[in-house]
Structure formats: C-alpha cells, structure tokens
Specification:
Layout lengths: L6 E4 L2 E4 L4 H11 L5 H18 L5 H12 L20 H12 L11 H9 L6 H10 L8 H14 L10 H14 L5
Antiparallel strand pairs: 1-2
Helix pairs in contact: 1-2, 1-5, 2-3, 4-6, 6-7
C-alpha cells in the first residue's frame, strides 16, 4: 500500500495536513475565488494546516509551497491552458457514479479519503465510466467531421454536458468568515 503524506516539515516543525480529499477540493475552489492572492494563500494554509499553520506567519511562504506540492499530488505544477474537461463540484454526480461502478464505493463524498488516494482512483477510472465518457465528449474534436447530422448530434451532446462558466461566489457564511479572518490578520479589504 502506498504511503500518502500526512505531515509537512517546515523549519524543523511538523504540520499535520487535513488530508480529506474534500478539503483539497475546497482549496481548489478558493484558488479560483476573486480575492487577493495573500488572502487565498492564507485560506489555503488554514484549510490544510489549521490554526497551527495560520498562527505561524514566518512559515507561510514554505507552507504554501509545500501545500501546493501536496495539492498537486507531488507532481510538477502544469500551467496548461487547455480547456477544462472536469470540475469537482459540477461533476460530483458523475464522480460518485464512476466510483460506485468501478470501485463499489457507494458515495465517495461520505468518506474521508486521502486526497492522493482519491486522485489515484480518479485517474484509474475505467475509460468507459460515466465521468470519462463525459470528459471525452467535452474534449471531442469536431473539426474533422464533414457530415452535418453527425456534427449536430455531437454538438448537442457537448452542450448537454458542458461545464457551466461560473464566477465563483462566496456564500454569506463564507463571506463573513473571510471578513472576520481579514480583520483578525490586520488586512484591509480591497
């Protein structure tokens, strides 16, 4: 069995990582929020390392660096600007169905699975699972299709499973939490 990381070391101190995959997904959502970079960074530090990480400003830079390494599952970050073919929130039902059919996990979102294990399983889903079929439709290249009827049918399928363009918005509760956090840290809202 692969040993997944549970701690990071910064300056000789061990910080416990919140390894639940849902936390990593929340970090991804926060990284897309329209808030200042330092506020996003602090929110990610808090989510991954809790109060202990947040209460050690000298370690912020290294915690973010190690947090990003953790969130990328130990892989080099890729600045690939290709079109997204999946969204953890919008595709939750496809993910649930695929994990159930491929791994007999009834509702993966009710587990506390480690982020790296979740990603290993997600990447190991069978090509014909519902999530991968949807992803294939989203990225299907229609440029070579000459038959108008076929082209129309594929375009209709692409529209049916297209990811919604979203401007990430915080809930009222999240907005209050961010505001309180900003005040506690002495930041000014832009």
């Amino acid at each position: 069995m692969t040993k997944y990381p549970e701690y990071v070391e910064v300056g000789g101190k061990l910080y416990k990582i919140d390894t639940d995959f849902k936390t990593a997904i929340e970090c991804q959502r926060i990284s897309q929020q329209e808030i200042r970079g330092e506020e996003r960074a602090l929110a990610i530090i808090y989510l991954l390392f809790g109060d202990e990480g947040l209460n050690n400003p000298p370690d912020y830079k290294e915690l973010i660096k190690k947090g990003l390494f953790y969130l990328s599952c130990g892989k080099e970050l890729n600045d690939d600007n290709s079109e997204l073919d999946m969204d953890y929130s919008q595709d939750e039902s496809y993910i649930k169905a695929s994990f159930y059919t491929d791994y007999a996990i009834p509702n993966v979102y009710e587990t506390n699975m480690h982020w790296w294990e979740f990603m290993d399983l997600l990447n190991g889903l069978k090509p014909d699972c519902v999530l991968n079929r949807v992803r294939e439709i989203r990225t299907y290249d229609t440029s070579g299709i000459k038959d108008q009827k076929t082209l129309d049918a594929i375009r209709k399928q692409k529209e049916a499973v297209a990811l919604k363009k979203q401007t990430p918005k915080l809930s009222e509760e999240q907005e209050k939490s961010v505001e309180q956090f900003i005040q506690q840290m002495g930041f000014r809202k832009r």
